[in-house]
Amino acid sequence: MRQRYEEVVFTRDCDVVQVPQGYIVHVETDTPAVVTQALGDSFTIEIPTLGGLYRLAAGDADAIGKDPPLAAHEADTGPLDEALVLRALKNVYDPEIPVNVVDLGLIYELQIRPLAAGGSAVDVQMTLTAPGCGMGQIIAADVKTRLEAVPGIAEAHVEVVWEPPWTPQRISPAGRAKLGLD
User: Fold this and answer.
1) Average pLDDT per run of 10 along the chain, which is 182 residues long?
2) In this predicted structure, what is the pLDDT of residue 177?
3) How far apart are CA 29 and CA 32, in angstroms?
4) CATH class of the 6-64 domain in this structure
5) Is 180 exposed, middle or buried (0-12, 13-18, 19+ CB in 10 A)?
6) What is the DSSP string of the chain?
7) What local confidence, expressed as pLDDT, does residue 108 receive?
8) Distance CA 68, CA 148 (A)
9) Given this model, what pLDDT does residue 159 score?
């Protein structure tokens, strides 16, 4: 698999998240960057003047002259069931790995409960590829945001857990193929 990189320049000031530390960094107008990944609802960019990788949220895509990577949620329609929820979560990516959280095997448990007031609540237990990952809360927030965008889901609760520990054996066949592990 050959990755395509694209050089861009920030057209306005913007905050990004340093990967994998999770720190918020302010980037000024006219800063050059390289898009290394545009998957799901965010971009992963390299900023040579700052060093390292950064996550740019879809809402700030215009700062690099782009549209959000996923403009619509077509995959999020149909009867509310586990399959629909998993399809929606396949739009959430680890910013360092070009595989979604479902195919990475990060989603451990998923429950859908009807709410008395209408709609459903979805409870997710998920993990990360490494316990010290500073992006953990950001990825969990992406999962929550993605779920709350699904029609019929009124509440989403996401818990990051560490048991059992994640291993590469949890990666799906599709994820393994994308990473060239087969």
Assistant:
1) 77 94 94 90 91 91 83 57 93 89 96 93 95 88 92 95 94 92 80
2) 92
3) 9
4) mainly beta
5) exposed
6) -PPP-EEEE-SS-EEEEEETT--EEEE-TT-EEEEEEEETTEEEEE-TTT-SEEEEEGGGGGGGT---S----GGG-SS-SHHHHHHHHTT-B-TTSSSBTTTTT-EEEEEEEE-TTSSEEEEEEE--SSTT-TTHHHHHHHHHHHHHTSTTEEEEEEEE--SSPP-GGGS-HHHHHHHT--
7) 97
8) 18
9) 96
Query: Where in the chain are the domains?
Result: 6-64, 75-179
Give the pLDDT confidence score for residue 106 in this predicted structure: 97
pTM of this structure: 0.79
Q: CA angle 88-109-92, nearest 5°?
A: 30
Q: Which fold has domain 75-179?
A: GMP Synthetase; Chain A, domain 3 (3.30.300)
Residues 30/21, Cβ–Cβ less than 8 Å? no
Residue 121 and residue 7: Cα distance in Å, rounded?
41
Does a cis peptide bond (omega within 30 degrees of 0) precede residue 79?
no
Helices 82-89, 136-148: crossing angle, 10 deg rounding:
130
**Distances, alpha carbon 19 to alpha carbons 74, 85, 129, in Å:** 29, 26, 14
**pLDDT for res 69:** 64
